[in-house]
Amino acid sequence: MLIRPATSDDAPQIRALFRIILKQMELKKLRNLNQQRLNLALELSFKTKECRLSKGQIIVAEVDGEVAGMAFGYPSQADGDIDELLCHYFPKVGLPAYESLYDNDDSQLTKTEWYLDSLAVKPKFRGLGIATALLKRLPKIAARCGKTKVSLDVDLTNPKAKKLYRKLGFKQTDTLQIGSHRYHHLMRAI
């Protein structure tokens, strides 16, 4: 397994993994959108350097030349910018213009946090330690961004993921609402 920064060529596979998360989140804004256009907009966003390497950072786990998993996050000060980047291509592909994917998000990141927005592993690669390998790389990314903590949100209905995060040193700091789901906000000092 190789953990590496994502390239623009990885965008289609990253988009497919990100869609797994969006489906689980059941966001109202995305329910009635043309799914092919949504895929195109997300893929175009993930191809940008801003989304992959500067404002946001995406790393992938590669197994036998295939992207098996991805982690997508950003320093706290880029929180609003990332949402705008993800929505930027919506009108360009014929979707409604949105500033945010989320109807409500009561997240309040602190200045010290590097936030893990998304972590996903392809179903056929689950149980092989890919999520753990990606999570172990995050402190280095956070430190390069001048952050002292890595944070994430985990759906209350996903105890298996919460167990993994706790095993890796994440501790619950808050509970919040994103869309129609409740999440635990977890944090780990680096």
Automatic annotation (TrEMBL):
One Pfam family recorded for the sequence: Acetyltransf_1
Database matches in InterPro entries: Acyl_CoA_acyltransferase, Bact_Acetyltransf, GNAT_dom
Keywords: Acyltransferase, Transferase
Keyword Transferase in annotation: yes
Keyword NAD found: no
Residue span, N-acetyltransferase domain: 1-190
SUPFAM superfamilies named in the record: Acyl-CoA N-acyltransferases (Nat) (SSF55729)
GO MF terms held by the record: acyltransferase activity, transferring groups other than amino-acyl groups
UniProt superkingdom: Bacteria
Listed name of the protein: GNAT family acetyltransferase
Species classification: Bacteria, Bacillati, Bacillota, Bacilli, Lactobacillales
